[in-house]
Amino acid sequence: MFTDNTHIVALKNTGNVFAYDTVERLNIRAKNWRDLVSEEEFGRKDIVTLQDPQNIESRNLSSFKYLKEGTDTATPEQQRERNDPSRNVNTAALGNGAAILKARSKKEQRPDINPDALASNRESISRITSSLSKSSTATTATTALTPASAKSAILPPASSKNAHARHTTGLAAASLTSTGLTPHTTADLATLSQETYLLQPRRVKQKGYLSLALSPASLGTLTLELAPEFAPKACYNFLALVKKGYYNNVPFHRNLRNFMIQGGDPTGTGKGGQSIWAPKNFEDEVDGPLKFDRRGVLAMANKGKDTN
Predict the structure, then answer these.
(1) Is the pLDDT reported for residue 284 higher than 60?
(2) Whether the Cβ atoms of residue 266 and residue 253 lie closer than 8 Å to each other
(3) pTM of the full predicted structure?
(4) Which is nearest to 251 in space by CA: 273, 235, 234?
(5) Sheet containing 47-51: which strands, arranged edge to edge?
């Protein structure tokens, strides 16, 4: 019998549900990789956890993917309910104010807008946006940016209307339980910081370009192309270190003929260096189409998984 304290798992290929203790004792330890009900074969990867009360990390909201990446899981109907002020307030306790709030909500849902004028405005905005996008791409492709301007080019403004998290500020709940806070009756979305907004995969589509001066000067400059769309943290880290002069007079400490050159370590040994988030590391960014399939590909070296 399952309870709130039972570790429950399911087998992906058969859909049968068991207590994990049963699977561990009769399948994993006994090396009997067959479903206890249907006798179908399964592997360790087919075991899916449905409930694990002992796993505290699974209840850590900050580690939830949709919160970290800002993915909206709400349906359009749920989104409309969230934006409706009348659904965020106990109208039964408002008295005469309930009717005012209901009328205001209906007025906001049905604004007096000319549909033809709205369509015309949308077409105009679309043409302007398309024109600006083409102009920006051409300028970026032909101009080598300085470290400071390269960082600014891939950082969206902190006040962007799109820089919202998928969780609320929590002010409504806090003001409900504390008389020291100003009452809030709406569940406003929290605003992401400039850095957090940038570090979402596929958030920044535009590539960045950076020129580094080599020494001696006779070697010229090294122009680098960055792909923040697929490696936002690595690009952000690199630009921030360049901006503060971290790589000034740092040699290429490793040169393997017909293979690669490696640099960026101030100690010159390949064992030093740190990111802008030191002493913390940041995870690998390998979820994308980028590969070592041609000469001159730039990458970040580390000493193991997620040790950047």
Answers:
(1) yes
(2) no
(3) 0.45
(4) 273
(5) 17-19, 8-11, 47-51
User: Residue 283 corresponds to which tokens in the numbers above?
Assistant: 């995870």
Give the pLDDT of residue 253. 86
Q: What is the largest CA-CA distance in the chain?
A: 82
pLDDT tier at 100, thresholds 50, 70, 90: low
Dist. CA 140–CA 136, nearest whole Å = 6
What's the 3-state SS for the chain? CCCCCCCEEEECCCCCEEEHHHHHHHHHCCCCCECCCCCCECCHHHEEEEECCCCHHHHCHHHCHHHHCCCCCCCHHHHHHHHCHHHCCCHHHCCCHHHHHHHHHHHHHCCCCCHHHHHHHHHHHHHHHHHHHHHHHHHHHHCCECHHHHHHHHCCCCCCCCCEEEEECCHHHHHHHCCCCCCCCCCCEEECCHHHHHCCCCCCCCCEEEEEECCCHHHCEEEEEECCCCCHHHHHHHHHHHHCCCCCCCCEEEEECCCEEEECCCCCCCCCCCCCCCCCCCCCCCCCCCCCCCCCCCCCCCCCCCCC
Label residue 235 exposed, middle or buried (CB < 10 Å: 0-12, 13-18, 19+).
Answer: buried
Neighbours of 27 (CB within 10 A): 19
- Count CA atoms closer than 13 A to 220's CA, side-chain side: 2
For the four alpha carbons of 289, 291, 294 and 296, in that order, the dihedral sign comes to positive
pLDDT digits (tens, 9 = 90+) for 25-45: 999 999 999 999 999 999 999
Non-local CB neighbours of 122 within 8 Å, separated by 6+ positions:
none
Give one word for 252, left, alpha or beta, with left for phi > 0 and alpha for psi -120 to 50. beta
**Cis bond upstream, residue 216 (ω within 30):** yes
